[in-house]
Amino acid sequence: MSTEDRATQVVVIGAGVMGSAIAQVLATAGCHVVCCDRSTDQLAAAARLVVHGRYGWERAVERAKLSAADATAARLRLTFADDLAAVASADVVVEAIPEDLAAKMALFAEVGGRAADAVVLASNTSGLPVVALAAAAGRPSRLLGWHWSSPAQVMSLAEIVRTELTDDDAIATVTELAVRCGKHPVLVRENPQAWGFVANRVLRAAIREARLVEAEGVASAADIDAIMVGAFGWPVGPLSVLEGASEGWGDDRGGSVSTLLG
Ligand SMILES: NC(=O)c1ccc[n+]([C@@H]2O[C@H](COP(=O)([O-])OP(=O)(O)OC[C@H]3O[C@@H](n4cnc5c(N)ncnc54)[C@H](O)[C@@H]3O)[C@@H](O)[C@H]2O)c1
Hints:
- By secondary structure, the chain is an alpha/beta fold.
- The protein contains 10 helices and 8 strands.
- α7 links the parallel β7 (157-162) and β8.
């Protein structure tokens, strides 16, 4: 069965660690995707990564995760742009710019002014108040959190964050899209008084405790990580996870986010 669905036009804003990977996953799932970034260097890096990166299409074909024909088709569905013109015809917009509330609010104000009435807006924020982003967009019922885990090509969680005002049909649209991407959607409610949703709040507590354990001299950082990997099957330990979040997980890129967990 073809995964092609010409009706779903997605704009991903931000072509960094997360945005480039999210755009790749959505294109692989059959969406027509425009990945936007104001940095042309970043766009060029993203275009390279989605093909040649550690989790890019080339290696997916080598590892028989994807046929060469499907990889080519996905590649053709993904384009890059240094402006937001594509927002006007988007069904879904996924924002993945740095974790800065003022920057995200300014971006969503612009997106809200450009997008169609029926658009669904999603933010990949790690923990900023979704309700504030929704207000900035001027569409309090049409914006929700769609928190991806890194690397987005690999990790299965789609943490979908609703506010008190989010429309059920916006949630249904994103949930269905996440399933098409091969993800496991879990719907959570936002608590705007707390930083983060579920994944990062619980992870943050683990990192805090791991740092305390290290400071007490109970075990080295490497041993703490090894213990959590060995004991609970974590893919990486709590003290290594931040490095991957900011640098990307490949051997092929640098990143700029150091604020994932604040
Ligand atoms: N890195 C992770 O592991 C991870 C995981 C989950 C969620 N997140 C969240 O995802 C978001 C993006 O994180 P990242 O690690 O991909 O950041 P990044 O710094 O790698 O990429 C952000 C990109 O956004 C671009 N950008 C900035 N302002 C822009 C604007 N106004 N218009 C268009 N492009 C703009 C930058 O040029 C950059 O390429 C953040 O909110 C972060 O908290 C990150």
